[in-house]
Amino acid sequence: MSIAKADYIEGLAKGLAVLEAFDTERQRLNATLAAQRTGITRAAARRHLLTLAELGYLETDGSHYWLSARVLRFAGSYMATSRLPRTLQPTLNRLAAQTQAAFSAVVLDGGEGVIVARSAGNAEPVRALAYGLHLGARLPAHATSTGRVLLASLPKVEFTAWLKGRDLPRITPQTEVNPKAFKALIEQVRQDDWCLARDAHELGIHALAVPLRDMQGRTLAALNVVGTAEQFSDAAVQRKWLPLLLDAARELRPLL
After folding, report:
1. What digits encode the pLDDT tens for the residues 67-96?
2. What does the DSSP assignment read for 77-99?
3. pLDDT per position as a tens digit, 99-126
4. Integer Cα distance of 92 and 65 in angstroms
5. Helices in the chain by DSSP H: which ranges?
């Protein structure tokens, strides 16, 4: 969707950019760092930081700023009102109870996948799973099974535009960062219609994902299960995990 320039509120866009500048790498920002991360002037960054702190979305010690719990209102409202997480959660709960493994549903947001529903069993391997696998977590699309499935669901023209000039950070030695090789990897995922990522996001962690489509064939999210190398041998993937995910995707399709 594109809007007329007169309808675009630049100040709002800058304020949201300042909020998005905070992440796990930069949990505390001052005006100079906020300006560098958003591309606005230091003076503008300072005013936005002060305003956001006044509104309660940031806390400050007078020099640096950090997110307050108030920002969770946005996530809470999404989880409470969005149909997708509420539709998916019961199925994820059932799968986790059935297998004692960890399952997530993820949507694509730019270069990242965002977990919108999640459920984990109590098996020992679950307690050793990758960091950051919590509701609302943002994970690099190029290094995760769900991200790769969602990228493969894009029209080829859109995927080419997504990849063009994009830096693919190397997170582990197994992360594919060569654009040409990554494009071939996504083409294979597109043909298979599922993705198994081994050690690409965190060493020792393997994940299998399939697309979740509605009745019109649109991919709305990706469903994955996460575990260890022992759990995800080639034989186990084909015999157990892939049929389990595909069955769940078929069951969910009329509901999406």
Report:
1. 999 988 887 777 677 899 999 999 999 999
2. HHHHH-HHHHHHHHHHHHHHHHH
3. 999 999 999 999 999 999 999 877 544 4
4. 37
5. 10-20, 31-38, 42-55, 72-81, 83-99, 145-152, 156-163, 179-192, 234-236, 242-252
